[in-house]
Amino acid sequence: MTTVGVLGATGAVGQRFVQLLDDHGEFDLSVVTASPSSAGDSYREAANWGLDTPIPEETADLTVRATDPGAIPDDTDLLFSALPSDVGAAVEPELCEAGFVVSSNASNERRADDVPLVIPEVNADHLDLIDVQRDQRGWDGALVKNPNCSTITMVPTLAALDEFGLERVHVSTLQAVSGAGYSGVTSMEILDNVVPHIGGEEEKMETESRKLLGEFTGTEVDDHDAVVSASCNRVPTLDGHLENVFVETRDDPAPEDVAAALADAPTLDLPSAPDPLIEVFEDPERPQPRLDRMRGDGMAIAAGGIQTTDTGIQYNCLAHNTIRGAAGASILNGELLARDGWL
Amino acid sequence: MTTVGVLGATGAVGQRFVQLLDDHGEFDLSVVTASPSSAGDSYREAANWGLDTPIPEETADLTVRATDPGAIPDDTDLLFSALPSDVGAAVEPELCEAGFVVSSNASNERRADDVPLVIPEVNADHLDLIDVQRDQRGWDGALVKNPNCSTITMVPTLAALDEFGLERVHVSTLQAVSGAGYSGVTSMEILDNVVPHIGGEEEKMETESRKLLGEFTGTEVDDHDAVVSASCNRVPTLDGHLENVFVETRDDPAPEDVAAALADAPTLDLPSAPDPLIEVFEDPERPQPRLDRMRGDGMAIAAGGIQTTDTGIQYNCLAHNTIRGAAGASILNGELLARDGWL
Amino acid sequence: MTTVGVLGATGAVGQRFVQLLDDHGEFDLSVVTASPSSAGDSYREAANWGLDTPIPEETADLTVRATDPGAIPDDTDLLFSALPSDVGAAVEPELCEAGFVVSSNASNERRADDVPLVIPEVNADHLDLIDVQRDQRGWDGALVKNPNCSTITMVPTLAALDEFGLERVHVSTLQAVSGAGYSGVTSMEILDNVVPHIGGEEEKMETESRKLLGEFTGTEVDDHDAVVSASCNRVPTLDGHLENVFVETRDDPAPEDVAAALADAPTLDLPSAPDPLIEVFEDPERPQPRLDRMRGDGMAIAAGGIQTTDTGIQYNCLAHNTIRGAAGASILNGELLARDGWL
Amino acid sequence: MTTVGVLGATGAVGQRFVQLLDDHGEFDLSVVTASPSSAGDSYREAANWGLDTPIPEETADLTVRATDPGAIPDDTDLLFSALPSDVGAAVEPELCEAGFVVSSNASNERRADDVPLVIPEVNADHLDLIDVQRDQRGWDGALVKNPNCSTITMVPTLAALDEFGLERVHVSTLQAVSGAGYSGVTSMEILDNVVPHIGGEEEKMETESRKLLGEFTGTEVDDHDAVVSASCNRVPTLDGHLENVFVETRDDPAPEDVAAALADAPTLDLPSAPDPLIEVFEDPERPQPRLDRMRGDGMAIAAGGIQTTDTGIQYNCLAHNTIRGAAGASILNGELLARDGWL
């Protein structure tokens, strides 16, 4: 078994990590950290457990540690980071310097030239950027990132459609409140309402997509040429980001070609990797967040509403934002790190 | 005073007509119709009044009539139609043949060559198609349509931006449940959910927009050249359609030019016409359905989130779907018909 | 294996039966019925599957039968009824006369003197009313009922507290929309709203509770003396009925005595029976519908907020209304029927 | 005109005060205070205006002052307090000592023997406690409180029913999220959920009700004898508290007697006082929060679902929690203070 820890384990994403790591076949969760005020408490006390499955008993009994290199046992093989980005920016480099491998969901350094930004089914080869990273930063450890939740939802579909020549992407998102964390969206903001703006989200989708779809040359990643314009909305759903995607393509594929390309997207043989990666629906009313966010145990992308336009195609896609879009994404990256011998 | 009636007065849109016509300065509501089973009842009994203002007392005491030319007094100057499209398709032509002028929200015949599809602030001149219509159909009456609620929300903004050369439009809608009528969306469909499809809606936005923005030659309307691709979603809001619009333009306007063009859109001097037509917000989190749907008493368009892209501009717009998008739209068309001497 | 069927298998409760019977260790689902218009279709076609787990493949391939004694194979050991009460009233007696044993969720005949109304953990002995029933009606089959969803939520707690001398019950319910079926509550009725009335529900709670808590004398059930007054509300939750209960008791138990009585409620060794029957929370903010409705796989009762008053006690209880409150309740009754040799 | 100020004017209740005081016929709002960090800003800048009507322009241009006796002009006739209770506890006595009359919605000191807790239509005579207060505390000013929002909703109905001999009250509340302030309830807590506990609320209902219904002897208030047991729930509605009330009465009134007693509750001739005070609905599905919270411009109580039980009566009542239940309540108390010559 690989010994793992979760940094920032008491927040909304941290709890999702703890839930997903319970009974994981390869990872043994033995370290949970939180802010200094919680250090020393049991996880049961420190976490105000808010998921709809019971708190995992073994983790509940762990003592919460400070999020600090000195507080984490040296033999912890892999750390998952659910830290806020400002804390991540401060602590993750220290941990990597101290020799830890960190698979992080925090947004800091996602765009850094020597930090791999990875969705295993899309760009597993970018992991080799770790060599460049270690070289440049003198680290024994490593820092690997997964993209933002709204980006992850779309990019596997774009990767599957790149064979038709991606040229231009317009995307509107309908994002669930859990993406903002437990207290990120108040009830008075969102009941009977939509908020048509999520700070920084549009830029993340535009830049992270191009890096993920880019080509790793051996020393760096060349961004994909396609321009992405995003419009991001918060809607009154709990979990599951739905996205309307319009893609202008070089070729002129028929809807059935598009459906086939999505349905046949390559999958990986990793514990958390879904098969198929993308579930394609014929019913134009699907996918829907509540009905389809748990496809593939929350790790699959659901797609539907495929149509052609005069300049390309349009379709909808959906993923569970705190599983495939956050905690599950980091865990899958961790499984890839383990398989490829980086731990 | 102009004597008016409402066809289909007991449904969700019909009730909105009744609410808006209460205390209207120029229109006197004296006729309400419904399905044969309600004919003879008082409106109070027939309508299961569901709006959050009390039922207007004078209308409550009216006796409901059948939706039938023979049941409507000849001296009714103007009829508003809140009929379902299949009923409208059967009854509206009969009424026009019998000499009534009908301002209709029903979707039947919106695309007919000789039926004016009108938003007064956008294409008031299309009303002259009535001469063509009377000529071709031999009617003494007239049939005028307002567009679909999702189309009305966007088209005033597109009209204001046409000075920059509209070439291509991508739009995603986040539509309120009231757009589907009182029983159109069940609670189990929409709580904690989004439905990414509204039957026929995308096609309506694509075709109606081009007709509205088209040029009236004196005998027909030449559709605008811009291609519109729409993706329509139902979200858990009660009223107010929010739309994310991406426009490719010939010119390259700055955001402040776009804002000025929207804010300066021409207004009309009609009782229900808002001034300004378009309220422009600087705060990127606005407009929001719950906070902004009642701007201009529900008749204004709210816009915000203006940004430029590499090929044009993107922004959000919002309107109250059962006021500006349905009942209020027909009433405004009725006011235009009165002003221009068609009654 | 016991061969079972589901009557009315395409509705909201019918689908829940199909979901729960998938992979049931003792029951093999081989018959699904629906209205005549669906007979002959595959279940996949006939059901517009609306649950958030995939449709069970084996059931999906079954051919839907008419809800009619002649259409159901004689060797079907047990029928579960998810029929509307008017259809149940017409068909269930015919089926029982034809020799079938029917475990029914439909509300018809729940109050009939010779029809057992059963929650296995509360009044399993009432099942012996079947002898009376067969005697009086000349049936080879049998008809057994589970109570209404709002009643099931409360009665196991009342049974556990009867040791303190139940004298008077006031209860307010906060009921989920799924209790009204897929189309029972429209979105316009319930978004940003509460409906403080559910037709017939209050009377069901008042009469069914007393029968369930009553004593079976060998020939009939003597209702419990305690008077129940209920006030029933529909709230914007999907699943899970929450109830505020005020009980006047003969004795004067301390809160910890109440908690212990609830936590120690007897359980049964049946496949669907949860253990514990009642999960007691110390946190006064629990139970909550979304977080706690799936306790015991949706079959447990959750309780909390225990306080004493000057005349007795008050507390909250919660159960999943379409599992413990409907389909799961009938299945549990079926398991009891099987164990006790009635099939 | 009476010159008034609002303490804590930028919060959710503070904004409601500002909205309601716009165009008030007798009160001229000229002072707004907030926390020190906002002092010196315009109200437009300091308030993140969140109501669905535009910010009143005159108030928007006021300069925000610190909530401090020294910062408030001496000639301010009346101060409304929308302060949090801890701030209210610190500042309100200072202001009263400095000679200001404060009509406060804050919960501090509501139970103090010499502080009038007033609903004008219920216990206007309790205002004479001010003489006792001034005597005991040596103040030139005065402190008057309105009760908690959930209490205000119920007490006018109890007062109207006291003629039948109130003996015991059980009440369950279904309270809107706005009652907790703008950020009090997160979206993740309440979407598809109910929270069956509101800290301190049950005790407030139990004690405040008895004081409001109590008798003023000239020197003190003797609490009413009736015991109140409350169970308080937060539900996913924006505004409007709905309550299920069970009352045990000495007499045995028929439902029509109850309806008449409620409908005939005495009203007052004050600018914000509704007439009737209590609107009684025959339809058992009414009142509903979204449809009925704005009755009487948000100041009326709506009641319905009247039934008799073996020990008394049960019914539902509803009021707008931030108008009748908070800001409007304080303003109405202010109007009473003005009428009775206390300013």
Automatic annotation (TrEMBL), chains A, B, C, D:
Name the record gives this protein: Aspartate semialdehyde dehydrogenase
Family membership: Belongs to the aspartate-semialdehyde dehydrogenase family.
PANTHER family hit by this protein: ASPARTATE-SEMIALDEHYDE DEHYDROGENASE (PTHR46718)
Keyword set includes GTP-binding: no
SUPFAM superfamilies registered for this protein in UniProt: Glyceraldehyde-3-phosphate dehydrogenase-like, C-terminal domain, NAD(P)-binding Rossmann-fold domains
Molecular function per GO: aspartate-semialdehyde dehydrogenase activity; NAD binding; NADP binding; protein dimerization activity
One of the GO BP terms on file: methionine biosynthetic process
Residues covered by the Semialdehyde dehydrogenase NAD-binding domain: 3-130
Source organism (scientific name): Halobacterium jilantaiense
Listed InterPro entries: ASADH-related, Asp_semi-ald_DH_pep-lack, NAD(P)-bd_dom_sf, Semialdehyde_DH_NAD-bd, Semialdhyde_DH_dimer_dom
Organism superkingdom: Archaea
Catalytic site positions: C149, H241
Keywords assigned by UniProt, alphabetized: NADP, Oxidoreductase
Matches recorded under Pfam families: Semialdhyde_dh, Semialdhyde_dhC
